[in-house]
Amino acid sequence: FVPLQQEPGCTFKAHIVVENDIMLMHQTNFCAINPILPQIVTGGGDGRLGFWDYKRRANIGYVNAELSSDTRNNSISAGDISADGTLLAYARSYDWAMGKSKAIPNEPHSIHIRPAQFKPSTS
After folding, report:
1. pTM of whole model > 0.90?
2. How much of the chain exceeds pLDDT 70, in percent?
3. DSSP string covering 42-72, please?
4. Which Gene3D superfamilies match (predicted)?
5. C-alpha to C-alpha distance for 40 and 79, rounded to whole angstroms
6. CB-count burial class (<10 Å; 0-12, 13-18, 19+) for 25
7. Taking residues 32-45, what's their average pLDDT?
8. Tens of pLDDT along 41-85?
9. Domain limits, the chain
10. I want to staple 75 with a disulfide (CB 3.0 to 4.6 A). Which of 14, 59, 89, 95 is the partner?
11. What pLDDT is attached to residue 67?
């Protein structure tokens, strides 16, 4: 158990979900910087896309990303933002967080492309 405290050095807590007073910490699988706005998008093992304003050091919000036909592959394993900052591409697949023994052969993967949908910064 590692206590999660508000201290310098632990400033980016991207994919943490609190359910019934239990903190679930999911890995962050990608982090991409928008080339147009001072914003970052992350994707993780919780199946959410996180949007961040890095100038204000604040979370803008989360989006539950689309599921593929098989809902077991909830993890967002990779992603990036287009060079013009308008499109966000991400992939859902097994991310190996649970090791080889939990991998299912021939399990479907999916790739999604959507508008980046960042909210403009107010700074």
Report:
1. no
2. 77
3. EEETTSEEEEEETTTTEEEEEEEPPP-SSTT
4. YVTN repeat-like/Quinoprotein amine dehydrogenase
5. 12
6. middle
7. 91
8. 999 988 899 999 888 888 888 888 766 555 566 789 999 999 999
9. 16-95+107-115
10. 95
11. 63
Residue-wise pLDDT for 92-104, tens only, equals: 888 888 888 888 8
Which tokens belong to 111?
């790739």
